[in-house]
Design brief:
Blueprint lengths: L20 H17 L4 E4 L8 H5 L4 E6 L2 H11 L4 E4 L12 E7 L8 H11 E10 L20 H10 L17 H15 L7 H11 L12 H8 L5
Helix pairs in contact: 1-8
């Protein structure tokens, strides 16, 4: 089975879905880091999902292409952007370009789904121009409250990820981490409950199931937007540790 055989829409944060403020802040912070790096460059978002970050990146980059392996997610991105941004259905392990085309390849929250990470990294070296950059974001499996996705293959710690990239010929840098807030008794209590739920395998496996859980824990949780905005990003940066 390849990554294209799975329907990742069930584990993808879709527009209109309920999400915790912390969850949305992570999404917006990742794309702000990418936005700053992509100014004037040709960019591929290789697992763009429904494309919520594409329009934001396009305000900085020279050109943006979105790619995803799930047809429904690609259709959502195409419906939103139309002719403004190119969106293609593709497997990140077999990118459909044979020559250097991009200055930046982005893969946010998807490396752990790939059956063949080596093929993805080889493809990045093929499609990136000299001096190009691969931007990755991935959870830290060493976090005590870490909960793996049901479709995941392998998660890498920061040190493992650095070694993986260097062995593939990249010069690796760890640029940022998101601060886990436990400033008050409520946050500490939720963290304890989440840790127990993870250990007992009680966390729902789909985004719909997680949304129901969030409604119980975070009654006023906001909804995800179709496209990231500067207002959302500025709010996120107040919560992030860069």
């Amino acid at each position: 089975m390849t990554s294209t055989d799975l329907d990742f829409s069930t584990v993808t944060e879709l527009s209109g879905a309920r999400a915790s403020s912390e969850q949305l802040s992570m999404i917006h912070t990742r794309y702000k880091l990418a936005y700053d790096h992509c100014s004037g460059k040709d960019v591929l978002d290789a697992a763009c999902g429904p494309g919520r970050g594409l329009g934001f990146l396009a305000q900085s980059a020279r050109s943006v292409v979105g790619g995803d392996c799930t047809p429904d997610l690609v259709a959502q991105a195409k419906a939103h952007y139309g002719d403004r941004i190119e969106v293609v259905q593709m497997d990140a392990q077999a990118m459909p370009w044979q020559n250097p085309r991009f200055d930046v390849v982005i893969l946010f929250e998807a490396l752990y789904y790939l059956p063949n990470v080596a093929s993805f990294l080889e493809g990045c070296r093929r499609v990136l121009r000299p001096g190009g950059t691969l931007l990755l974001s991935s959870p830290n499996p060493e976090w005590p409250e870490f909960n793996p996705s049901p479709y995941s293959r392998r998660y890498y710690s920061a040190s493992e990820l650095r070694k993986l990239l260097e062995e593939a010929g990249f010069s690796a840098e760890i640029k940022a981490a998101f601060h886990v807030r436990k400033d008050n008794l409520v946050q500490k209590a939720i963290a304890r409950v989440r840790k127990v739920a993870v250990s007992l395998n009680l966390i729902p496996k789909t985004m719909n199931g997680k949304a129901a859980l969030k409604r119980m824990l975070f009654n006023q949780s906001p909804r995800s937007t179709r496209q990231i905005s500067f207002r959302c990003v500025n709010q996120a940066l107040k919560r992030a540790r860069i």
